Amino acid sequence: MSSPKNGNPWLTALLILLLGGWGLTTFYFYQRLKKVDHQLATVVLRSDSTPTRPVVWNEQETAPPLSATALDRIFITASQKAAPSVVFIKGTGTGRRYVPWGWDWFWGGGYYLEEAIVSSGSGVIIHPKGYIVTNYHVVKNAENVYVIFPDSKKEYPAHLVGTDPSTDIALLKVERDNLPAIPMGNSDSVRIGQWVLAIGNPFNLTSSVTAGIVSAKGRRIDVNSNSPFSIESFIQTDAAINPGNSGGALVDLHGKLVGINTAILSKTGSYIGYGFAVPINIVRKVVEDLIEFGFVQRAFIPAHFKDVDDDLIARLGEPVQGIFVINIPRGSLAGREGLHQGDIIIAIDGHPVRNRAEFDERLALRRPGDRVPVTVLRNGQKTTLTLTLTNAHGQPTLARPLKAVTSKILGARIRKPTLAERERLGIRAGVVLEKMKKGSYLRNLGVPEGAVLYAIDTHVINDPEEVDRILNRKSGRVLFKLIYPDGSIHTISGFLMDGR
Q1: Does domain 304-388 have CATH number 3.30.365.10?
Q2: Domain covering 182-292 assigned CATH 2.40.10.10 in the classification
Q3: Quick one: how far is CA 129 from the chain centroid?
Q4: For residue range 381-397, what is the model confidence (pLDDT) as tens digits?
Q5: Which residues are the active-site residues?
């Protein structure tokens, strides 16, 4: 009986070759896939959205590029440098509120209720010899002003050097030397997004500091609409500014003053994220004028302007930012020096002008008689003119204090309106009421300073000396016709007693 035969050697060899080929092919494609994955990873790392070198995380490196400790030191140092220069301002006085009788429309008269007035806010020491800046609205109704410094609870009486309602700035002087004056910054160098600190001394709490960023520049919110020639080109910040902080300091991270905190935008009266400060470059110019002249030397380009709006851009067919020249009065110096109706002012003194707020800010830094380069867009071409700035009377010279008379009956100084005031309000007659005394007649009736009295009953007023002559001949009910600084027209009924 024979034994079984071995398998076919050729078949065995073929199977070995097939298995070997399959193994080599699998290994080859595996290596190719690894190479493709590596190439894809390299492409991702070298894309525009990620670094070309992979980031290696080191668990020991937990601090950010600027450590929280270093940032703390910056804020602390800035606060320590600026806070000693911020003071508490208190104003006191008395006022009278008119309370009519129930039948006042028929019988006339009424009575005045005497009331105490107390105002408060913050201020900033700007000179070691006692000069302090605050807001005009903090002290405007005060008969006596006091300053309390952070190093003392003593109240120092302050002298009111001067005020500028159009920028809401007031300058005080106290008899004290070697005060810690705050270092001055440059508001032109302030940039949107940079850190700032708002420092106040509200309610005599001895320094309150908040931090935020600059949200915008050149903001106009019409908070000074009752002031003639209102200048609003605010620095907007989200650093919290609350009641009592008015007149305080807005400083950069070097502790330098870049603005005077002035207003908040709120429907509740409390801070909700929008604070506004007067740029320090404007404040510096106002202070210099108040010390040298006793009033602010306001500069003008004698023409009428408006912001470039969407309708004008549609007519031009291209996006433009600037100030449109509506009209140039006949004989205007600006017209003689080459400014044309229809020009668009896009820069003053090399600084871009995008809106009326920035336009007013550039002029607020100058004085009458200054010659400044003005870049205009005319028929699609840029042209640079050199214009001479004028005072409110249209003259290229420094303004002089206007001659005024004092009305004993109304308890106010009265003067003729300037050319700029007449053009702005559209009047040819009338007199301007200034410096109303405590308990003065029209002040008790709620008339603001800067209002124009243009008629008493049917008598149109053309000269300040006419006012008392007309009133001396009257008794009983009198109608005062006025134009307030914001342009609104008012008729106020008063009652004059014999023997006044």
Answers
A1: no
A2: yes
A3: 27
A4: 999 999 999 998 889 99
A5: 137, 168, 246
